[in-house]
Amino acid sequence: MKRILITAELPGEGFRNIVSGGKFEFKVLSNEERLSIKKAVTDFRPHGMVTLLSDTVNSELIDSGPELEAVSNYAAGYNNIDILHCREKGIAVTNTPDVLTDATADIAMMLILMASRRASESERFTRAGLFKGWKPDLFLGKSLSGKTLGILGLGRIGVATAFRAKAFGMDIIYWSDRKAPENIENSTNARFCGFDELIKSSDVISLHLPYVPALHHLIGKKELSEMKKDAVIVNTARGQLIDEDALADALTEKRVFAAGFDVYEREPLINEKLYGLENAVLLPHIGSATEETRAEMAVMALSDCMAVLNGKKPLNRVN
User: Fold this and answer.
1) CATH superfamily of 3-99+291-309
2) 121, 138, 210, 245: which is deepest, by most CB within 10 A?
3) CATH class of the 101-282 domain in this structure
């Protein structure tokens, strides 16, 4: 019987049914065992692994599992996995795209709203018992209708965010590695533009790009200095796309209006400067965190891992 190592307990009835199904030998790591995934791999000798985005699946870990045939990442991204080393060893790598598109786009739009309308700041104010009645200038924020949303990366989540922003009456421009199909542009009213134009013209910037080394600190000091002084920037993609320290300084100096974060450059560490900033909305990487989405992700990851081990083609192979 082939063995599958799962680095954490996953949510959903579908996950529990698969693990108890008896077709494979499963091992789900406890929180204590997660502290040394390499030891678990060495001891269990899995044929397949289901990993989290927070697991570093480097060459050392991969080599500790000589019987590995598949690594299924419980995430849409997979920059935590040494894809090249897996390819060299003939190990299939899969991810969980599509299923988390709407959930993540919801969070992107929520961050845009929270940052633009100072929602976190005003909620803390109210909880502290400071609200003494309506005032004309109490927590004035930025309207979205008629403003320009610049989307960096018009993939699945970028498109879903564009549809949501369109409903708020926003004008949409985007920059991506290639122009979107005409039907997508027409249905979202999105216009392709250059990177520099997007940075300088957008009232709100939302990041939806995968992380690759060439995009490290895509948004840095230079780009922040070229943004509108009252711009809002939100990131639900990957933390390393933004120079977090430079953005914290820009927020402190009010060179941008506000920012919303669901991901961080050195996650789970967060730049200390951000904690004291009222114009920074900080979420704990909950882009896909709905019961339905996380349950579907678990079934998708396990199903693709089992498909590889059964000699079948997985639905979401990335290498």
Assistant:
1) NAD(P)-binding Rossmann-like Domain (3.40.50.720)
2) 121
3) alpha beta
Distance CA 50, CA 94 (A): 9
Check whether 22 has a pLDDT greater than 90.
no
List the catalytic residue out of 16, 34, 217, 285. Answer: 285
Active site residue 208: no
Domain locations in the chain as residue ranges: 3-99+291-309, 101-282
Pick the catalytic residue from 33, 34, 255, 267: 267
**pLDDT for 92:** 98
Is 101-282 in the same CATH topology as 3-99+291-309?
Answer: yes
Reply yes or no on whether 3 is catalytic. no
Give the percent of the chain with pLDDT over 70.
Answer: 100
Strand partners, 37: none
Q: Please indicate whether residue 244 is annotated as part of the active site.
A: no
Instruction: Give the per-residue pLDDT at 235.
Output: 98
Of 117, 238, 265, 296, catalytic: 238
